[in-house]
Every structure is written in C-alpha cells, then in structure tokens.
TrEMBL record:
Name of this chain's protein: GntR family transcriptional regulator
Pfam families assigned: FCD (PF07729), GntR (PF00392)
HTH gntR-type domain residues: 9-79
Keywords in alphabetical order: DNA-binding, Transcription, Transcription regulation
Cited SMART domains: FCD (SM00895), HTH_GNTR (SM00345)
One term of GO molecular function: DNA-binding transcription factor activity
Family annotation (SUPFAM superfamilies): GntR ligand-binding domain-like, Winged helix' DNA-binding domain
Length: 241
C-alpha cells in the first residue's frame, strides 16, 4: 500500500499509543496509578473527550482499569488474551468460518509448540505440568476440574515454548473453544490423562520429536472424537457471544 493511501489515525488512538509508551518509559507495573486527568490533559494537549476515549480504548484492551470516584483514575493492568480472542472471533465470524478452523490451527501449531517447549521449559514450568497432571488424575470425576486442568496443561506448554506469540494464540484459541459445544465435549477423561502423561514424559525427557508426535496424536484424537460424537459442532459457524 502506498504511503499516501494510508488513513490518518484518530487523535484518540495516537494519544493511547503515547500513554502506553509513557507507561513503558516510566517502568510502570500492574497496580500503578497513572497521573490525574488534569495532568494528562496538559501532557497530551487534547480535550477531555479525546483523553477519555483513549483511556476507554486501553481499558477494553486490558491495559488499564478505570477506578471511579475520589482517588480513582486509570490503573495499570496486565493485558491477557481476552481481547485477542474477541478480535479473532469477530474476524472468523465475518468469514463465516466453522469451529473446525480452530482445531486445524491447533493441530498445526501445538506440535511445534511442544517441540520448542521440550528444549526451553524451565524446571518450574515442568513442575507446573506435573501438578496439572496430578490434579486431573485426582478429579477425573469432576468435569469442571477436568476442563480447567486440560486448558491449563496446554497453556503451560505454550508458555514453556518461550515464545509469547504462541502463548497468547493458544490462550485465545482455547477461549474461543470454551464458548462452543466442542469445548465441553464429553471424552474419556482417563484417556486424556494418559495422553497428557505421555506428552509430559517427552517434555521431561527433553525430547522435542517425541513431544511433537505425542501432541499431534493428542490433538488429532480430540478432533476424531469431536467428529464422531458431535460432527455438527465442528461445522457450526464461529459466533461472538
């Protein structure tokens, strides 16, 4: 795209970018309060409406929380994958994409992520995976615990890959599945625990190929079960909400 055809950004978006840059420059961390509104109005030389639009945008992105009342104001937060999940959901909905899209993405991404994790996982992260395995084993009769630990296991491996992009992508994809029939598919939980154990062992052995293979088998088996038990769920369109 030619430079001249680029649409100018709204002033509120430019101010939001400056606010984030200043957060980084000052070294603000979660829980820190930003300067009062009057100070920010003088700093960014904009009107109250523009500043508030900037702050609302950053709140939606999970960068800030806006505390009302005396002593309130913008407080720095840690963004998570929720905004990414919402954006992906909307993009896929307007593409009329089915939930099969999510599983195809996972079957491509997660074996590679497991391959990297086998090389990069810290001892603490490996211990977290073992804790997830033990919790799942001890609560196989509890669907809620099972689903939570299944999600946690995959998120921990994505985090262990050492690549933040994979961490947020997998978190977002799993959030999208949480709102679908596929995300609550009834499976043989003991079999899932056994598969997680094989993946964990490959990671503990620092065997990238074995970890990638075990993860690929796990995701592909999950897709096969979804196709057999609820084929309509995979074909259902992704929708927001």
């Amino acid at each position: 795209m030619a430079q001249g055809s680029l649409r100018p950004q709204k002033t509120a978006m430019l101010v939001a970018q400056r606010i984030v840059a200043d957060i980084n420059r000052r070294g603000n961390t979660v829980g820190d309060r930003l300067p009062p509104e009057k100070v920010m109005l003088d700093t960014y030389e904009v009107g109250r409406g523009t500043l508030r639009e900037s702050l609302r945008f950053l709140e939606l992105q999970g960068v800030l929380s806006l505390k009302p009342g005396p002593g309130g104001g913008p407080v720095v937060q840690q963004p998570d994958a929720s905004s990414l999940a919402t954006t992906l959901t909307l993009l896929l909905q307007f593409e009329h994409a089915p939930f099969r899209t999510i599983n195809e993405a996972r079957s491509s991404l997660e074996p590679m992520i497991a391959h990297l994790a086998a090389e990069r996982l810290s001892a603490e992260q490996l211990a977290g995976l073992k804790s997830s395995l033990d919790t799942m084993r001890d609560h196989l009769d509890d669907q809620n615990v099972f689903l939570a630990e299944n999600k946690r296991f995959h998120e921990l491996i994505a985090r262990g890959s050492g690549n933040p992009m994979f961490r947020y992508l997998i978190d977002a994809l799993l959030q999208i599945l949480d709102n679908s029939a596929i995300g609550h598919l009834e499976v043989r939980r003991s079999a899932v625990h056994e598969t997680h154990t094989r993946i964990y062992q490959a990671l503990a052995d620092r065997s990238p190929e074995a970890a990638a293979t075990a993860m690929a088998e796990h995701i592909n088996e999950y897709i096969r079960q979804a196709e057999n038990k609820n084929p309509g769920a995979l074909a259902a369109p992704i929708v927001w909400g």
